[in-house]
Amino acid sequence: MLDVLKKQYGFIQSARQTLFEFLKEIPFQELHNTVPNFGKASIIRTHIHVADCYRYWLGSFAFKQKRADFSFASEYDIEHSDVDKVQSRFELVDEVVQRFLDEFNARWFENIANEVKWQEEHWSTTPLWLLTHTETHEFHHKGQIVSMARHLGYSPPNTDI
């Protein structure tokens, strides 16, 4: 199963790379423009949110770190990020995913309980749920990012094939 999950993540990285190459064509300021009716407001903010989600759930939560041990991107980091900085953030994500896959190999249904930053009580789930959540979360927001680009007047490539 580990080989399948690593191969699947490789497909995700490939789609992400296609998106990065497209986003490099969009001027810095436009990547930060607020696009109404999207939850995270801008392309850069949304992409950083995705990276932080991976790092939080697969890194901090799965490895049972305390709430105080994890911090999301600061407003300064977000406002000063370009595509290269977001790519660097995803290089950290790739390391976390690799560590997660190696650690939980053959333990996909084991219970993991930990604190959740925005909840008072501990929450419990499985490694397979965490991996599924982060990957589907990325694709949900990837769809929003390409939609935001269209709203800004750009024609994104197909990032799903």
TrEMBL record:
Keywords: Metal-binding
UniProt entry tagged with the keyword Metal-binding: yes
InterPro entries the UniProt entry points to: DinB, DinB/YfiT-like
One Pfam family in the UniProt entry: DinB
SUPFAM superfamilies (alphabetical): DinB/YfiT-like putative metalloenzymes (SSF109854)
Keyword Metal-binding: yes
Homology family: Belongs to the DinB family.
Name the UniProt record assigns to this protein: Damage-inducible protein DinB
Organism: Cohnella kolymensis
Lineage: Bacteria, Bacillati, Bacillota, Bacilli, Bacillales
